[in-house]
Here is the input.
Amino acid sequence: MAPVDPREVQSLQAYLNQYNQQAEVYSRQLGIMEEGIREGNAAIETLKALLVAGDSTILMPIGGGVNVRARVEHPDEVYANIGSEIILQKTNEGGVSYLQDRIAEMEASTKNLTEVLQKIDAQVKDISKRLEQLYRQAQEQQGSGGAGPR
Here is the structure.
């Protein structure tokens, strides 16, 4: 049995750390995507409810858990922030369609992130298994005094 190479152990530990860091980043991105999907679905429900409610008074959140009473004068007129401080006016139905498209994109990204995380997890398991084998081998060599076959 060949002696355990400490450089191999260090290299595997470095790979393991890198994969764990990547997994953490992807997990955070996955959480952001899932939150975006929830927000998008909630916004769709709100837009649909506004059309049904007509010109009745609603509670509008302004942040920090505080709401104000508001009346939506034009529930069929919505504004979508498409990025870079660009806001487009859309109909209520157009707003719903826009949100559904964004949700579909986020769901596709979520699927891709999940697949990447599964691959990283498989790599982590492989590396961990190899490290475990190397540690066992090192312990066996220490227990036998490091003497190999002659």
